[in-house]
Amino acid sequence: MSTILEPGIAPTTKPSAAITPERLLAQLQWRYATKQFNPDLRIPGKTWEALEKALVLSPSSGGLQPWKFVIVTDLELKRRLHPDPRQEAQVLHSSHLVAFAAKISLAESDIYRNIDRVIELRGVSRESLQPQADRQIGRLVNGPGAATVREVNAQQLHIALGNFLTSAALLGVDTCALGGIDGARYDEVLGLTELGYKTYVAAVAGYRSAEDKNARLAKVRFPEADVLIRR
Ligand SMILES: Cc1cc2nc3c(=O)[nH]c(=O)nc-3n(C[C@H](O)[C@H](O)[C@H](O)COP(=O)(O)O)c2cc1C
């Protein structure tokens, strides 16, 4: 019996893995940057709900979650985000598109928003968290970190993106990260600028088309010996 998935409970025995190493690697091999989706297939509600929850469960530096994930299923909206007809099979035929947007600055209220949530969910005292709040405000709001907070928040998005891509692969859902997007267009179409957020990356998800030749290409990675350094 696995204790690994029980929230908030420290395992008293060595937890058993949620999936086998072989299964994990099989799904990571199976996934690929999908160029053509099957326009007739939609991600079922329960599967998509799990992927939304996976996005929300993504870890972030200091637990600050400086992001919004905008989920787009409307065809016209997708077309406004990607008017280039060459992207029809990848974007318009996808089931869901996610825009990953980061907060462009952090205010004291952003720090306290997280502190308040910790108090609510963990029942700890405000006094016990005040040093953490002071540290974060001193660094990210009033200190040297304020100058780079936009960049750091954008980096956090890529953690959520990776989490999304892997979670989708484990559920048998195809995806493609989209780094080459027109972020300003996204912000305007999705109304993110007035919320103080900026889109840096997106992802499309759905089910691969049988015509997508990329699905049959060998996966290209450097040999492990070139990438892994063991000390
Ligand atoms: C941050 C990021 C941005 C990417 N942007 C695009 C993109 O704009 N369009 C695209 O077709 N693929 C994009 N890709 C897919 C990569 O080209 C692909 O993941 C890489 O070549 C490895 O191939 P694989 O994902 O099929 O294993 C992106 C991947 C990442 C991680």
Report on this structure:
The chain is built from 9 helices and 4 strands; from the N terminus they run ααβααβαααβαβα. With 231 residues, the protein is α+β, with helices and mostly antiparallel strands. It has a domain at 39-105 and 149-214: NADH Oxidase, CATH 3.40.109.10. Strands 1-2-4-3 form a 4-stranded antiparallel β-sheet, with helices on both faces. The structure holds flavin mononucleotide. The site of flavin mononucleotide has 10 residues, from β3.
SSE map:
Elements: H1 21-30, H2 45-56, E1 67-72, H3 75-81, H4 88-92, E2 96-103, H5 108-122, H6 126-141, H7 149-170, E3 174-178, H8 183-189, E4 197-206, H9 224-227
Helix pairs in contact: 2-7, 5-6
Bound molecules: flavin mononucleotide (FMN).
Short description:
By secondary structure, the protein is α+β, with helices and mostly antiparallel strands. Helices cover 42% and strands 13% of the residues.
Largest sheet geometry: 4 strands, antiparallel
Number of strands: 4
What are the secondary-structure elements, in order, as H or E?
Answer: HHEHHEHHHEHEH
Q: Average pLDDT across residues? A: 95
Briefly note the structural class of the backbone.
alpha+beta
Gross geometry? globular
- CATH T-level fold name of the domain at 39-105 and 149-214: NADH Oxidase
Instruction: Give, in spatial order, the strands making up the sheet with the most strands.
Output: 1-2-4-3
Alpha-carbon Rg, integer:
20 Å
The CATH architecture classification of the domain at 39-105 and 149-214 is 3-Layer(aba) Sandwich
